[in-house]
Amino acid sequence: xxxxxxxxxxxxxxxxxxxxxxxxxxxxxxxxxxxxxxxxxxxxxxxxxxxxxxxxxxxxxxxxxxxxxxxxxxxxxxxxxxxxxxxxxxxxxxxxxxxxxxxxxxxxxxxxxxxxxxxxxxxxxxxxxxxxxxxxxxxxxxxxxx
Length: 146
Description:
Layout: H1 22-32, H2 36-58, H3 61-77, H4 88-123, H5 129-145
């Protein structure tokens, strides 16, 4: 579940064609400099749209909220590497998409590993029970280590 900032007032950050207003540019510049209030304003402004976008990808509210929370943590940690202030919105949406893809790939690997274990168990059902148990334990330990 994501954490909501304390209400600080909605910030109107409407993007005019290709350029930001002075207020938007100041908020982003302050954020890049490490101002937590500016970050809170950006968080409050983009949180809901990013959660809706991520929900359309994941079809799972909890996963979507977790992904977006991770995106904002990454944004804060990498704020000094943001060079073009006009691309913050694009950056956030791209990070959200990439985080979704990363999670999807990680889950696919887990499912594949579990399926391999299941198939090995099915193949070794006719073995000696003690040998079979040792092999299952070894496969499970290998999966946990991955």
